[in-house]
Amino acid sequence: AVVSTQSGHYGRGTYKPEYTSIQSFFPNPDAPWKTKAYSPDIIGLHQEILDFAKWMQPTKEEKRLRGCVVERVKRIVHQLWPCARVEIFGSYRTGLYLPTSDIDIVIFGEWAYPPLRALERRLIENCVAEPASIKVLDKASVPIIKLTDAMTKIKLDISFNTNNCIQSAEKIMDLLKEHPYLDKLVLVLKQFLLQRHLNEVFMGGLGSYCLTLMVVSLLQNTPRCTKRLEHQNLGVLLIEFFELFGVRFNYASTGIRICNGGSFFNKDECSEMKTSILCIEDPCQPGHDIARGSYCIYVVKEAFKKAYYWLKRVVLSNAIQCNQGYLMTDSILGTIIKVDTSIVEYRNWIAKNWHQLSYKLPHPEDFVLNYLQQSRLKINNKKTQNSQQTDPWPGKNSELSDTSTDCSPVASSNDDGTTDESSSDGSV
């Protein structure tokens, strides 16, 4: 399917839920987060959103794997430019990433122009990515390299000297502390946009940063959310988000501002923001519009609108039909979002192959130091326990064991099967 706009065609294979049919939603095989029966009302939707966010949280192996991928890119960058500084930003830095989300990397250094092609060649030479998987977007407003890691299938976006990206990530982390349920709503909405192919900014979609600020704007402008937000119903907030930005919000004349408690403003007040369809003022750079690239926002708005009317219908129908012994669906959230089986299979693949991958990938220094410290602590504890069980003078033996541990090499395996010994490619 192709969704068309006045700007042209937008994407292919766009997800279109069957809003006119209820048979495909019962039972729901595409809701792996569903581990129990939920109440068939708005409270059940709240509980389901909590379970969805919990299921989407990265596992220990997934976190480590992403750290290893970043470390490998960092080492290649330092081979080319030893004085360059490599940082992560975006959803990976804030923790608001899905299992298939990109890793955003920015490289700081002194260049007249971003050396996109030089890095592209080195990444191919080091077998980090296949040539067919790399796209160099040198004409974009922010030139980037998009690639897929050949070993882990993790996608990366690499940019150069993007000065405000780190500050933006820090701002989102502050907002996460201020609004307790912000992360859970954002994860649901990110999955909602992802499966409809409406999440890529370079294709006119709505990016993670703008989406997060839109959710913050809802929370700031909802009167009851100003006090004790932790007692709010996530189902109600999700429906209100779809209502606000799918039905009520006037994109033609209204802009979004979250500074100083949040507000809406007339776009005519700022000539620089008047031309863009969706206007969101950057909280880190007042007067700057960060949503000007989302030229397909009306497609996004239509998706929000359909989700609003659909959720209202499902919640009300379930409440009525529950007394009749028939439910419209066993997963209210599953009527608007799906988790593809390929995502479940990919997460299972990581869990199964992490030990093998850990030997082939370089590890960040903090992970290595922490691992060495834990390994030595385990050995010291084991020797102390053995000496207390077999020797009538445990104090004397414990002193000897402490001395010998510092003088002997240590090579032990921990929970994930790695050792202190170096691998053939110089990684630990």
Mean pLDDT metric: 80
Sheet bearing the most strands, described?
A: 5 strands, mixed
Helix vs. strand class: alpha+beta
Radius of gyration: 25 Å
SSE order in H/E notation?
A: EEHHEHEHEEEHHHHEEHHHH
Total helices: the number is 12
The end-to-end distance, rounded to whole angstroms, is: 47 Å
Strand content: 5-15%
Spans of 5+ residues with little confidence (pLDDT < 50)? 1-27, 392-428
Helix content: 40-55%
Number of strands: 9
Shape summary: globular
User: How do the strands line up in the largest sheet?
Assistant: 3-4-7-6-5
Q: Which characteristics define this entry?
A:
428 residues; alpha+beta; five-stranded mixed sheet; 12 helices
List the helices and strands and how they pair.
Elements: E1 3-5, E2 8-10, H1 42-56, H2 60-80, E3 85-89, H3 90-94, E4 103-108, H4 116-125, E5 135-137, E6 144-148, E7 155-160, H5 165-178, H6 182-194, H7 208-220, H8 234-248, E8 254-257, E9 263-266, H9 297-321, H10 341-360, H11 365-390, H12 394-407
Parallel strand pairs: 4-7
Antiparallel strand pairs: 1-2, 3-4, 5-6, 6-7, 8-9
Helix pairs in contact: 1-6, 2-10, 5-7, 6-7, 7-8, 8-9, 11-12
